[in-house]
Specification:
One of its GO terms (molecular function) is iron-sulfur cluster binding. Its cofactor is pyridoxal 5'-phosphate. It is built from twelve helices and twelve strands. By secondary structure, the protein is an alpha/beta fold. It has two domains: 8-16 and 259-372, Alpha-Beta Complex (Aspartate Aminotransferase, domain 1); 20-256, Aspartate Aminotransferase, domain 2 (3-Layer(aba) Sandwich), CATH 3.40.640. The strands form three sheets. A seven-stranded mixed sheet has the order 2-8-7-6-5-3-4, with helices on both faces.
């Protein structure tokens, strides 16, 4: 029988496989530490101590204080809590600033505050490179601005915003808080916390568990809880703690940060190999800017819609996406690409590749070969 080629995963921006060390620790925790961490008996107290050690370890890795780490279910919750929680905690100021290309959890939080609570939101336009500038933020700031929320790296194109410059402007020229969605950036590029008041991180993007994440919240930041309940997470997130997932988050983060150099060397090399190959294919248009994450490549071939291309690649054994997976059921053009000035057609024919250090040069070469074959077959549609 002919050998079936292995399926190649090129969608690490959507989710990642759990790191073997994280998985082993998690299974061990499930077997032994299943009790409620808020229980007063010895077993509950032990789980609580383990959670606090994990909180301290995660804080140390990020260079913040232990009580500035809130365990959440992931970045969508962290983003929602950061935005809605900070806005509702200071109802005297009704202005927010974000960009036109944020993740849906940010965009929909902003829209909800507009629709139900009368907030005014400034959506900063992005350049052709998919980024905003500190000067844009400076000009948008107002006395009643309560929060600025800007992603560090875009989930579709990998474009990187000048977070340090923006943080300096917000800190020096306003009383607003600054929130950064670090979901796609952490573990791939340096993510310093200087000048940042709130930051969101999700475990499943860095070889951790789904349903696990953190919100870094400076101790001076006031938040209104979004999930009402008991006194868990300093009274800011009610509900029984997902203790085993929270405990292994610290290990997940440590491993991700240790692998950061692999992204700048090994994965960047694969990315450049892929880009060189794509440039040799007539009709391919690169959508990712030059200054982007070392793992992300977004491109379009305007004769083949995204859905057709994804299905064709799937049949060839390649797992890819077209945009944020949270938007994968939408038939609309990518709002990220249209915001960058690309046509609806180009934005409707985009493909997103997100590489990892598990991929190889052979994976890239096989992908390029399959892409050429698909274009020959479907390219005249």
């Amino acid at each position: 029988m002919p050998r079936v080629p292995r399926r190649v995963y090129l969608d690490s921006g959507s989710t990642t496989a759990v790191h073997p060390d994280v998985l082993k620790t998690y299974k061990d925790l499930l077997d032994r530490y299943f009790v409620n961490s808020e229980s007063l008996y010895d077993e509950g107290s032990e789980v609580h101590r383990m959670m606090e050690r994990a909180r301290s370890a995660a804080a140390g890795l990020l260079g913040v204080k232990a009580d500035e780490i809130l365990f959440t279910s992931g970045s969508s919750e962290s983003n929602s809590l950061a935005i809605k929680g900070s806005a509702l905690a200071d109802p005297s100021r009704k202005h927010l600033i974000t960009t036109s290309i944020e993740h849906s959890s940010v965009m929909n939080s902003m829209r909800q505050l507009q629709r139900l609570f009368g907030y005014e939101v400034t959506y900063l336009p992005v350049s052709e490179q998919g980024t905003v500038t500190a000067d844009q933020v400076r000009k948008a700031l107002r006395p009643d601005t309560v929060l600025v929320s800007i992603m560090q790296a875009n989930n579709e194109t990998g474009a990187i915003n000048p977070i340090s410059d923006i943080a300096e402007v917000v800190q020096k020229e306003s009383h607003a808080l600054f929130h950064v969605d670090m979901t796609q950036a952490i573990g791939k590029i340096p993510c310093p916390m200087d000048g940042i008041d709130l930051a969101s991180i999700s475990a499943h993007k860095i070889e951790g568990l789904k349903g696990s994440g953190i919100l870094m919240r400076r101790e001076y930041v006031k938040l209104e809880p979004i999930i009402s309940g008991g006194e868990q997470e300093f009274g800011l997130r009610g509900g029984t703690a997902n203790a085993p997932a929270d405990i292994v988050f610290a290990k997940t983060l440590r491993l991700a940060l240790e692998n950061e150099t692999k992204y700048e060397t090994e994965v960047r090399s694969l990315q450049q190999r892929l880009i060189r190959g794509l440039k040799e294919i007539p009709g391919i248009e690169l959508n990712s800017p030059e200054h982007n994450l070392p793992c992300t490549v977004n491109f379009s071939y305007e004769k083949i819609p995204s859905e057709v291309m994804q299905n064709a690649l799937n049949r060839q054994g390649f797992l890819v996406s077209a945009r944020s997976t949270c938007e994968s059921n939408s038939n609309n053009p990518s709002y990220v690409l249209t915001a960058m000035g690309y046509s609806d057609r180009r934005a409707s024919c985009s493909i997103r590749i997100v590489l990892s250090y598990h991929n190889t040069e052979e994976d890239v070469d096989r992908f390029l070969s399959a892409l050429k074959e698909i274009i020959r077959h479907y390219g005249e549609l």
